[in-house]
Amino acid sequence: MQTTEKQIPKKQIPKEQIPDLQDPDSGLRGLHAGLQSIDLLVPELFASDGGIQAYSRTLIRALQKLRPQMRMRVFILNDHPHHLPSSGWPGITWFAAAGSRTRLVGSLLGAARQRRADVLVATHSHFAPLQWLHHQLSGTPSWCSAHGIEVWSLRPGWRCWCLARLQRLLPVSRFTAEQLSRQLGEHCPPLAWLPNSFDPQRFSPGPRPNALVQRYQLETDQPLIFSLSRLSQSDRYKHLDRLIEAIPALLPQWPKLRLMIAGDGDDRPRLEALVQQLDLQRHVIFCGRLPEHELADHMRLASVFALPSSGEGFGIVFLEALGCGRPVLAGNQDGSCDPLADGRLGLLIDPDQPLAPALTSLLQGQGEDLWFQPQALAQAAMAAFGFEAFCRRLEAQLLTLESR
Amino acid sequence: MCGIAGLLRGERDGHRPAARAMDQAMAHRGPDGAGLWQSAPDAGEQVTLVHRRLAIQDLSPAGHQPMVTSDGRYVLVFNGEIYNQHAIRRDLERQGHQFHSNSDSEVLLQVMSRYGCAALQRLRGMYAFCLWDNRRQEALLARDPYGIKPLYIWQGPGGQLLFASEVRALLASGLIPRRLDAAGVAGFLAHGSVPEPRTLVAGVQSLPAGWMGTWTRGRWHAQPHWQPSYAAGLVGTPNDVVGHTRQALHESVQAHLVSDVPVGLFLSGGLDSSALLALAGGSNLTTLSIGFSEAGFDESARAAALAEHFGSRHVPLQLGASQAAALLPSFLAAVDQPSVDGFNTFCVANLAAEQGLKVVLSGLGGDELFGGYPSFRKIPHLLGLHQRLGAARPVMAGVLARSRRSKHQRLAAFLRGPATTSAAHRCIRGLFAPAEINCLLNHWGLDAPGGFNARGGFDEQDALYGLAREASESGGFAIDQAQQPGHQAVPQLGDAIAWLESSRYMGQQLLRDGDGFSMAHGLELRLPFVDSQLLHALAGLDAGTRLAADKTLLRRAVPELMTVLAAVPKQGFLFPFQRWFDSTDSPLSPGSIAYPLPPVPSSIDLSTWARRWGLMVLRQWTTGHLGSLWDAAQLDIQAAPISAVVAPSL
Question: Which residue stretches of B444-525 are H helix?
């Protein structure tokens, strides 16, 4: 077996990198010692950044905080050994399968033979068949996160059959929960809403960074709509084209308006052609894929953050924009309703409708007072979706396991 | 449901008399109150807003308009109904707002002033309104998605803008030149109603359905705030399509029952109105049916059976040729924009108003939503024919063009042009063929408008739909483009036909007539099938299911109806127009001394009543509102060409 195992001794972890462990008022840590061990199955963790990676890391952090004594084994499909961190993650045994499913299956079942975990949690539904097999062999309860589009239209088959036979599903949004319930019907396992979280220390309100203002040759108070997404042909449900198409109707009122689109992918040429066709080269900036450390600063450039998607499982980017105190526009047809708290934290719109009227309102500062109060908005987002809120929701699920 | 008008900019001294005249011209729309608001002389732009009230929700003076926010910043004049006002009200109350009335006008005022034009998406209802923002010195005008409520505008010199619920109210202001729009005439002859955004008056435009416009310091900018979408969502079809449909219908019907006055229902005995009765429940409804003495036209027995089954208070009404003839003068006086339809609506509204009703539901829109029209079968057939004929098309078109028959003329025009859904729709629904229109325009001395040619008619991107181009350029919804299957908004041919029927035949003829002729009697017409949220719920269903023959989906969604309908045979609910009009001694006959037609070349086929009726109404309207143009033409067409009198405007 080629599995790479890398145990990181707890003593090597500088505690300041895990601020929540320093929090004496948490009230959550160590109250319940029922769970002894947990296995986690994740598609990717450190090799790249994305919604599922962020969610998986948050889950691990939360488990560390809630059950610091619990043994944790993390099986990662895509990461290679060199992706694994050398510090900052105490008490975890890593298994990096380097993209090999065979290696992943072997290491998971091999580990189960060595020691049976109290629960196996997967952070992607593609693992459902493996989870079912694991449960058959080990008897370990198996939970699975469900994010978005990958479980909205399940085809009858092996994965669907296995999903229905897991012990719990953890949808990240109520919309995804509804779709699971609709498709799996009476066979649907218990559903527990476990929405995403964000890092309020990275994503916090602040002024427009001068360096970026200069880089993009902006004026200090120039209106700017910021959007962030993978620009993939398969992700056209993000409707970035409609965002571009809305710009001409806004220019009479805001002649200096800029639309900044961050992200890259195979759909970018089409979007750039649309910009040319509408003669908007002066107004639309494609800034490509952003390094993680620049993301929050780009959010702070925004007058409005807009992603009128109709296919978001949840949309962590909305939380990050809210964390930066920016007014947010999102679609009302999908999981986006959750991070915007059904419209209390931002403007929900039908993405099939013209976007210019809604963008006009936000650029004019019309909407709920909270949307235009950066500090209060960031606080509200943190209260609803900060790490503490994530821990509270996860704790409720762990308790159900321990109270059996 | 009311009438609104306004003047933005212009001589302050001239505002008040113009506003009074507009108010008087709309008196029939609002018998329950009138209001006028004028900006302070030193407050910037000179603005006058006029309102005529028909009280439906909150009958007290608290619903008086123009309505002003407590800080004096926003002023609203609003015509329509917001059916989800209570949900919006609760949301605003959660944010700490205190309301002073139960009126939907106050809810609209508050939600618009707080959220701006983003709030338009939250509205369920029919509306046309103007919201004036004193601080920004900006007016926002908006019209509901389907255009149930009308709104006309005229842009004058120096950035002045006038708006009103009716073209006649704008003309009454005395500020607008009474000039005929040749493109409007051509559009009327082509479609049987004047296509948006044209009117018969040069310079007066209809704000298109689902559009909004802002006027700031003399600059007018219009854009769509709504567009249809028949695209399926990412989550696929609901498991229970029939249950989903019934739920959506039920919600729409319940929303349309919100009222502080009794609600009636026009019960024709057909599937659509019967479904509304079944979904609404009969206990609190007054149902009205119309019977005719002419054999084969009386459905009143079927309506009575339905009413008895569902327990509504039923009032069977009778209409005969002589009574219809007596109503004709007042009908013609009530026409705001001519159409070949509408007399039936006028007669029915007259009878309903005599029963003391102020609100009546109608099954209008069911055919558009569930594929009830023959066009859903004929258009695919026509498109197939176009393709099959291939190189033989010009020959076939030439042969057909020699015929005098209207149908052949229209088919010839279709075969000469590209095979688009909208061209096929025009072929089926059109009144006159392009060659005939050209002949009539020439005969009347009018120049053919740009974008029109006598062989193929109007191009897909023609002058009549000029606003479609503007919409496309501004990122909005291009009307003709979106009527082609394959567009993301109308992925299937059936969807394209459904939207053509909804936006053209229904939107520009039935809805316009419905509003004008119900309001002529102080009656509010409500249309549960014409509801953007209902469309949103059903449009994503596969077109084959939604538009299945015989409106199968609607039948299955209201199964309790079938036993009653099956027991009484259906005859077809139609007004006996053909018999009334074709009878030689009929006082209703268009072309008689009392109701003359404009001069028509002998080559034009006038055998169908709709053509004669349309020409008669056109003549009556232009004579009544723009002067005696047709009489002059009749006297000496060659010597006094109408083009000398009427400056065509494109």
Answer: 466-473, 479-482, 493-500, 511-519
- Whether B14 is in a domain gets the answer yes
Last residue of a domain, one of B145, B176, B207: B176
Cβ atoms B524, B81 nearer than 8 A:
yes
Give the residue from A154, A333, A360 with the most B CB atoms within 10 Å of its CB, the best one to mutate: A360
Residues 6+ apart with CB under 8 A from B514: B148, B345, B362, B364, B525, B527
Q: How far apart are CA A39 and CA A120, in angstroms?
A: 5
| C-beta neighbour count of B8 within 10 angstroms | 30
Q: Is B74 on the interface with A (CB under 8 A)?
A: no
Which CATH number belongs to the domain containing residue B95 in this structure?
Answer: 3.60.20.10
Of B109, B113, B121, which to mutate for an interface test with A (greatest number of A Cβ within 10 Å)?
B121
Whether B238 sits inside 8 A of A182 (CB atoms) is yes
Q: Comparing A2-11, B335-344, B581-590, which segment has the lowest mean pLDDT? A: A2-11
- Dist CA B163 CA B26 (whole Å): 12
Distance of CA B38 to the CA centre of its chain: 30
**What single-letter DSSP state applies at residue A189?**
P
Domain-embedded: residue B358: no
Residue B600 domain-assigned (yes or no): yes
B60 is a domain residue = yes
pLDDT in tens, B457-507: 554 334 334 333 333 333 333 344 444 555 667 788 999 999 999 999 999
Domain that residue B598 falls in: 588-645
Decide the pairing of beta strands B204-206 and B263-266: unpaired
Instruction: For residue B529, give both structure tokens.
Output: 């099938």
Residue B392 burial by Cβ neighbours in a 10 Å radius (0-12, 13-18, 19+): exposed
- Which of B176, B204, B237 marks a domain boundary? B176
Nearest to B288 by CA among B271, B275, B278, B273: B273
Asked if this assembly's ipTM is beyond 0.90, the reply is no
Of B379 and B14, the one with more pLDDT: B379
Q: Do B227 and A354 count as a contact with CB atoms less than 8 A apart? A: yes
Q: For residue A172, give the nearest of A196, A136, A205, A200 by alpha carbon.
A: A196
Which SS3 state, helix, strand or coil, does residue B266 take? strand
**Pairwise CA distance, residues B505 & B528, whole Å:** 18
pTM of this prediction? 0.89
Domains of chain A listed by start with CATH number: 4-197+386-402 (3.40.50.2000), 210-384 (3.40.50.2000)
The pLDDT, as a whole number, for residue A26 is: 37
Number of domains observed in the structure of chain B: 2
Distance between CA atoms of residues B251 and B302, nearest Å: 26
DSSP-derived letter for residue A48 is S
Alpha-carbon gap, residue B605 to B409, rounded angstroms = 10
φ/ψ of residue B162, rounded to 5: -115, 145
Residues of chain A with pLDDT under 70: 1-33, 403-404
Instruction: State what percent of residues in chain B have pLDDT above 90.
Output: 59
